[in-house]
Specification:
mainly alpha, single chain, about 75% helix, about 0% strand, 11 helices
Length: about 240
C-alpha cells in the first residue's frame, strides 16, 4: 500500500480556492478569513483524524497548526489585529520547536541561524525606512525571528534521528525551510516590492501552505506506515519529540 495521498484532496482544493478568491483581492473580510484559514484547519482535521491524540509530537504539531490558523485569521485584518497575529505565529513556532525536540543538538547550526536572523534584521533596518508607528514592534519581530530560527534549527537537527523514517525527516526539514522562506518573502517580496502584487502574495501563500503540509506529513506516523507496515513497532519506539 502507498501513502494515502488522495486524502489530501480537500486540502488541495481549499488551497486552490484561496488562490482564486483571497490572493487576487486580500481585502479584510470574513470571506477572506475563511479562504485563508480553511487549508490549515483542514490539515488540523486531517492530522487528528489520522493520528488522534496519539503521541507528543503529533499533539504539539496540532497545537501549532491551530495557533497558525488563529494567526492567519488575525493577519487578514493587519491594521487592527496584526500584532496578535504575529504573537499567535510566535507561539506556533514554540509548539513546532517542542514537537521537533532536542534529542540531537548541533550548536554550530544554531549559532549560524541566530547570526543570520540578526544579519537579516540589520539589513532591513538599513535598507527599509520603518514607519515610526511600527518601530515599537521591532523587538517583537526580532523575537519572532529568533523563534522561527529555533524551529528551523530543531527541524534540521531532527533529520539526523535515524530511528525516524527518512520521508518524515525530509518532510519536516523541508517544511521548516519553506516556512522560513515564506516569512522572508513577506519582508523582501511584499514589503520590499521586488515583484509586483499579486505575484508576491501568491509566493507567500503558496510557500506557507506547502510548509504547513510538509510539517504535518512529517508528524504523521500512519500516513507513511501505509507504505511501511513492517516498521510499525520501530516507528512507535523512535518517535518522541518533546522538549527535554
Amino acid at each position: 500500500m502507498q501513502p494515502p495521498w488522495h486524502h489530501l484532496v480537500p486540502f488541495l482544493a481549499s488551497v486552490a480556492a484561496s488562490f482564486i478568491w483571497f490572493v487576487p483581492k486580500p481585502t479584510p473580510s470574513i470571506g477572506s478569513m475563511v479562504c485563508k484559514c480553511l487549508p490549515v484547519i483542514l490539515l488540523v482535521m486531517y492530522l487528528f483524524c489520522l493520528e488522534g491524540w496519539s503521541h507528543t509530537e503529533n499533539q504539539l504539531v496540532l497545537v501549532a497548526l491551530i495557533l497558525s490558523a488563529f494567526g492567519d485569521a488575525f493577519l487578514v485584518f493587519p491594521k487592527s489585529l496584526g500584532l496578535p497575529g504575529v504573537v499567535a505565529f510566535g507561539l506556533a513556532q514554540v509548539a513546532f520547536t517542542c514537537a521537533f525536540g532536542f534529542r540531537s543538538v548541533s550548536w554550530v547550526i544554531g549559532i549560524i541561524l541566530y547570526l543570520t536572523v540578526f544579519a537579516v534584521f540589520f539589513v532591513i533596518m538599513i535598507l527599509e525606512a520603518i514607519p515610526s508607528h511600527y518601530r515599537i514592534a521591532v523587538p517583537i519581530f526580532i523575537l519572532y525571528g529568533i523563534l522561527i530560527a529555533t524551529m528551523l534549527w530543531r527541524a534540521l537537527d531532527r533529520f539526523r534521528l535515524q530511528e525516524l523514517l527518512l520521508e518524515r525527516r525530509l518532510c519536516t526539514s523541508a517544511g521548516a525551510i519553506i516556512f522560513v522562506l515564506s516569512d522572508l518573502s513577506i519582508i523582501f517580496l511584499q514589503g520590499g516590492g521586488l515583484i509586483p502584487q499579486p505575484y508576491s502574495k501568491f509566493v507567500t501563500i503558496a510557500t506557507y501552505y506547502a510548509a504547513q503540509l510538509l510539517i504535518t506529513l512529517g508528524a504523521s506516523e500512519k500516513f507513511w506506515l501505509q507504505d511501511y507496515p513492517n516498521k510499525m513497532d520501530h516507528e512507535k519506539t523512535g518517535n518522541r519529540g518533546l522538549c527535554e
